[in-house]
Write a structure and sequence with these properties.
The chain contains nine helices and no strands. By secondary structure, the chain is mostly helical.
Length: 181
């Protein structure tokens, strides 16, 4: 049994990878996974995918779909437009359709993520408003009407500070003791 042979794609010139045809396409995508210049990557990769699809239709399309998915998993939301523009420019209808479907899924995933972040932020704000209301009511019950400066302190405090003040209410003899360090 032969030992495994390791292949360092980072040190392999792009021209050598292109000679590997189908395997080289995936190697190239792996090599430039974290690339900063997406435009240059796509201008090399998409024509290559196009040639492979023409030369070897079935394996070319199959591997092309895998590479498209891999590329979209690694790019930022603002790069999706460039991705679809380059796909329209270079790819055949089969891979172009796949690229558009994947780009649409990517955008939907981004929208869902944004909605989830918005919900989380709204919940956090709601919790903090509830903490503020509870602390204000407790202070008014214990010490009477609150001066404006304490209402402002409470409104600008974070959750941990509100919690600390809430604990101090239990033992404080005056309103000032609640807010003093």
């Amino acid at each position: 049994m032969k030992p495994y042979q390791l292949f360092d794609i980072q040190r392999t010139p792009d021209e050598t990878l292109q000679k590997h045809h189908l395997c080289g396409l995936m190697e190239f995508a792996l090599k430039y996974q974290k690339v900063r210049n997406l435009s240059a990557l796509l201008e090399t990769l998409f024509p290559w995918m196009h040639r492979l699809e023409i030369q070897n239709p079935q394996p070319g399309v199959f591997l092309g779909k895998i590479v498209l998915q891999y590329l979209l998993d690694g790019i930022e939301a603002e790069d999706v437009e460039l991705f679809t523009e380059q796909a329209n420019r270079y790819l055949t209808d089969t891979l172009k359709g796949e690229a558009m479907t994947l780009a649409q899924r990517f955008e939907e995933r981004g929208l869902r993520k944004g909605i989830q972040q918005g919900i989380q932020q709204g919940l956090q704000q709601g919790l903090q408003q509830g903490e503020i209301a509870l602390l204000t009511q407790q202070l008014q019950y214990r010490f009477g009407p609150l001066p404006d400066r304490y209402i402002n302190f409470i409104a600008q405090a974070d959750s941990l500070t509100l919690l600390a003040w809430g604990k101090k209410i239990l033992e404080a003899k005056t309103l000032e003791e609640v807010f003093n360090e």
